[in-house]
Structure formats: C-alpha cells, structure tokens
Amino acid sequence: MPPINLIVNGTFDAGATGWSGTDIEANHRESAYLGNGSSNRVAELDGRNNQITVMEQTFTVSGSSTRTVSFDSALRLSSNGNAGVEGFRVEVLDDTGTAIAFAEIRPTNNTLQEFTLPVTFPGAGNYTLRFSERGPNDSRGAIVDNIELMVCFHGETQIATEAGSKAARDIAIGDLVWTENGLKPVRWVGRRRLEAADLEQDPTLRPVRISAGALGQGLPIRDLRVSRQHRMLVHSPVCERMFGAPSAMIAAVRLCDMGGVSIDEDTQEVDYVHLLFDAHEVVFAEGCPSESLLLGPQARLALRDEAIEEVCKIFPQFKFHGFAANSAYHIPERKQQKRLAWRLGKNGRPALQGYRAQIAPVCVA
C-alpha cells in the first residue's frame, strides 16, 4: 500500500487543527507573507511580537524504523534583513521528552523549499514532532507548510479493539471489537488481496481514499482506504432534513463529491477485509465510524463463493438469496446518497458534524 502521512493537517488547510503549543499562527495565506498571490494556507513560526511560537503534534509508530520528516519552508519578505538568522528548530521527541532527531532551519529564500530530517525510531510508541521559533522575536518568522512523516502500515486500516488499535488484517474470529454498542465478538473475517494486475483489469476495484480529517472532527485520524461500496456513517443536520434522522450509512464512493475523498489511482495492491458480527455494527476505523459487513444482496456480490459458504455455516439464513439483515442505520437509495454528498460539499458541511460515539472506543494509535 502507498505510504500514509502520520502528521495530521500538515498542509494547514484546516488552520491549526491537529497542532498544539503556543502562539500558533496558521490562519493566513502564503501570499500574505511571500507576496506571490498564492491562496495556499501556511503557518508562521513567530505569531506575535514578544511571544515564543511552539507548534507540536504527537503521533504513534508501530515499530523500529528509519523515516524522514519533510517540510517546506521560506523566509517571509519582511524578514529579508534577517536572512540566515530567522528560523526555527525542528525535533522529534520520544515519550520521555528526549530528542531523537533535530535540526536548526534558517531559510534564506522567499520561495518555499523542501527540507528533510531523517529519524530513526528505536521502537513502537508515541513520539512528538515539535517546531520551535528561533531568531528575532518580532512576529516576522519563517513560513512552514506540507509537513509529512510517511510510514507504510502493514495491515493498513487500524480498528479499535479491546486490546487497543489493531490492523484490520490481523483481527481474528473471537476478537472483541469496539462498536457503537460496546465490545462485540467477531464472528467471521473475510480477506481478499488484489495485486496491480487485478486493479488494472478492473479499475472499479480501486479503493476510495479518505484523507485524514476529511470527514470532520479530525477524522479519520490517518488516511483511510476502503472499498467503493463500503459504507461510512454520515452524521449531519442535512441527514435530519433529508431522512428524518441525524445519521445515515453512505457508500464511500458517493462521498467523492466532498473534499479530501477520491478514488486512489496510485494504489498498486490492496487488502480488503470484511468483519462480520451477530448484527450489523458501527466499528471505528482510523477513528471513523464505519460499517461492518451487512449480510444481504450486496454482500453476495462482494464475497466469493467459498466465503459465502463459510458465512452460511455460521448464519444459515444467508443461504436464502432474498435474505437481508437489518442495518444499523438508514441506508438511502443511491440517488439520495449522491444528493446528500452533493449538499454537504456544496454547503461546506463535514460528513461528521457533532458526532459522538455512544461507546467511546479505545484510541486508535
């Protein structure tokens, strides 16, 4: 699978969302600092005069590895007299606060240029990426943008379980998974691996990529990839107006009318995992409310014959072609799903507005 950016909102398109610290200024466009007419949003590492800017974000890695933090930086026009002096320190800290990698950055150009910081992570755990202001404290600091720490997750989507975050492909029958209805045991797991040749032969098998934060409320926590027909929970006043209920299940492909959701054309291979419970459940994938396998006509289309046979041994009623289990939430008709996504996108509304899980899941890490 393609690498995933561990850094949430590294482009600052959502302002300072995902970042904590002091004196953070991430609400202006690039042109305000560089005079180039760009509407791209950036962050400045010297927000206000006589205040020290510190901007940081904590993330989790699953094991020891060597990776690279990359980011763009530039000297703002009004600081040309401080070229080589104005800048910041970038560092990665372990959970004890010890820096395991750091660099002092002093940009000298008025155009964004890429900088990199190699990082060797000694093991799994929580780490913090921190940017700290350096140079004159005059509210005319260096500019940063496009912050990335790319990691390949083996097993891809992380699911909230009783034992903590767990890769979907590693979940086994009997595992207790967090749902909106509390911890529920997995009754059956289906897996299908598709290679580049499969995706080239049938492009409709390519997954939908939901970028980190694209659905609102900082969700998903990281980029999430699901099959096109996999349903995501939408919770919005628009649902209430259209369907008389605040929540509905919408196929991921229908959400492509919204920003940050698109068909992943770069994927060279993909693992699709189906989790089946005694009932249709809402589970938490990368923190996002997402459906479990719903037994019915669509499941028959998605599953291979041998998988259908396995499921029928556990749920004999699935042998009948007309059988359809009850869904956890309303599933609108295709035309209504498209209209819902269009209305959300048109009005700049997130797919998850004011959503609160009935049962708080284990934090996805």
What is the structure about, briefly put?
By secondary structure, the chain is mainly β. It has six helices and 24 strands. The strands form eight sheets. Strands 1, 3, 4, 6, 9 and 11 form a six-stranded antiparallel beta sheet that branches.
Q: What report would you give on this structure?
A:
By secondary structure, the protein is mostly beta strands. 13% of the residues lie in helices and 36% in strands. The protein has six helices and 24 strands. The strands form eight sheets. Strands 1, 3, 4, 6, 9 and 11 form a six-stranded antiparallel beta sheet that branches. The chain has a five-stranded antiparallel beta sheet with strand order 2-5-10-7-8, with no helix packed on it. A three-stranded antiparallel beta sheet has the order 18-17-21, with no helix packed on it. Strand 14 and strand 15 form a beta hairpin.
List the helices and strands and how they pair.
Blueprint: E1 4-5, E2 20-22, E3 25-29, H1 30-34, E4 41-44, E5 54-61, E6 65-74, E7 87-93, E8 99-105, E9 113-121, E10 125-134, E11 143-151, E12 158-161, E13 164-167, E14 176-179, E15 182-185, E16 188-194, H2 196-201, E17 208-210, E18 224-226, E19 231-235, H3 237-243, E20 247-251, E21 261-263, E22 270-276, E23 282-285, E24 288-291, H4 297-302, H5 305-314, H6 334-346
